[in-house]
Amino acid sequence: MATSGPMLELRAALPSFDESGLAPVPFDLRLMPGDCAVVECRDPHRATLFADLCCGMVPLAAGSVRFMGLDWQDLGDRQLNALRGRIGRLARQGTWVDLFGTHLNIMLPQLHHTTRPTDEVIDAAMTLGQAFGFPGLPVSVPGRLSAADLARAACVRAFLGRPDLLLLEDVSDALPADAMLPFLEAVTAARDRGAAVLWFARKASIWYEYRKAVNVHLRLLDEGLFVMRGV
């Protein structure tokens, strides 16, 4: 799926504070295919809420949030599922289900939101797993994995399926140092395919090595989203 316009666009998107927890201020953001925006935010919960907003999961009092040119508010359940299948999300508080092995947790979003053949999903997940330092895919339940391995698994899940939009929350405190290069390589490969990237970071040092490849540097505060100059 491709788009000639913005991949993600927030037009004076005003969250409904009572239902979202985000400050009731209008947000504006425009990401084209291949763009990478870094959003510095010291509050992980606020970053998660903003990622929810970009996914169309936050009710709006005014304005709009569009993904691939489509307004989330205009879509039915089937369309919502299909579009969310095009988003790769790296969540700081991963939604892991201990009823299933970690390998199934990784693949379930693709199996639920897309019509990709199961064998294709498995092969792609195995390849990504090896890139992030696993011998294959961890089959133990998530509760048995270390924080480092859960962070690796979360990266595999986020990049699986060649997503058109990546929403990457900050897991740098858990992600091992040897996984940082595969992470940056996966970000670059996704952008080369035309994906847009929104990368949340708690401080500048986290993304400093990638700074020359970043299109825009933003800061997310209670008062709204602000464009920053320099690092």
Q: What is this structure, in a nutshell?
A:
InterPro entries: P-loop_NTPase (IPR027417). This protein has about 230 residues and is of the alpha/beta class.
Q: Which CATH class of the domain at 11-96 and 161-227? A: Alpha Beta
CATH superfamily of the domain at 11-96 and 161-227: P-loop containing nucleotide triphosphate hydrolases
Indicate the CATH topology of the domain at 11-96 and 161-227.
Answer: Rossmann fold
Shape: globular
Keywords: ATP-binding, Nucleotide-binding
Protein name: ABC transporter ATP-binding protein
InterPro entries: P-loop_NTPase
GO molecular function: ATP binding
Describe the structure.
- With 231 residues, the protein is an alpha/beta fold.
- It has a domain at 11-96 and 161-227: P-loop containing nucleotide triphosphate hydrolases (Rossmann fold), CATH 3.40.50.
- It is 32% helix and 23% strand.
- The protein contains 7 helices and 10 strands.
- It has helices spanning 17-20, 44-54, 77-84, 102-113, 118-131, 147-159, 180-192; strands at 8-15, 27-31, 36-40, 60-67, 70-71, 87-90, 165-168, 196-201, 216-221, 224-227.
- Strands 6-7-8-3-9-10 form a 6-stranded mixed sheet, with helices on both faces. A 4-stranded antiparallel sheet has the order 2-1-4-5.
- Helix 7 (180-192) links the parallel strand 7 (165-168) and strand 8.
- Helix 4 (102-113) packs across helix 5 (118-131) and helix 4 packs parallel to helix 6 (147-159).
- The radius of gyration is 17 Å and the shape is globular.
- The model has no long low-confidence stretch (mean pLDDT 92).
- Keywords: ATP-binding, Nucleotide-binding.
- This is ABC transporter ATP-binding protein.
